[in-house]
Fold this protein.
Amino acid sequence: MMKIVVTELPARTLVGKSADFYGAQSPKFNGPELLGPIWGSMNSMRDKLGLPERTTMIGATRPAAAAKADDGLLNQFVGYVVEDLPADLFGLEVLSIPSGRFACVDHVGSIETLVDAVRVFYSDLDSLEGYTQRPGLHLEIYDERFDMSSPDSIMTIAAPVARR
């Protein structure tokens, strides 16, 4: 069982882009094929946006538009955390993440093991004592501890929760 910690996360503003996909819990799972190119294109936008090398990136996931969400389709917004909006967004969108209470776990491992870690996190989250999931954005936070090439990289998985 993962060590899940409940904490308050601050509000954040992201600059990025989004795509619909089927998540790791779905038999139609297609996240790597659809989201990989989005993450890659955002990595190449950092310099263009004038952001520092270790700028935090977040994947913010929610159900897809209502008409599509019934079949388990999700939407992930992939973006850089910014304090101030860049003068030129280069066609990117802006997403505001409100502050709130989240159940979080730090995943330690390579990016290849992330999908399995997400599955375990959500399985363990169902038994988190005193809390229940609430509507909101589910987050993957890639801060200065994350290194794509490291087998011991650290990133945070976070789900919005409320007291029971």
DSSP finds four helices and nine strands in the chain. Residues 23 and 29 are 5 Å apart (CA to CA). Residues 5-163 form a domain with the Multidrug-efflux Transporter 1 Regulator Bmrr; Chain A fold (CATH 3.20.80.10).
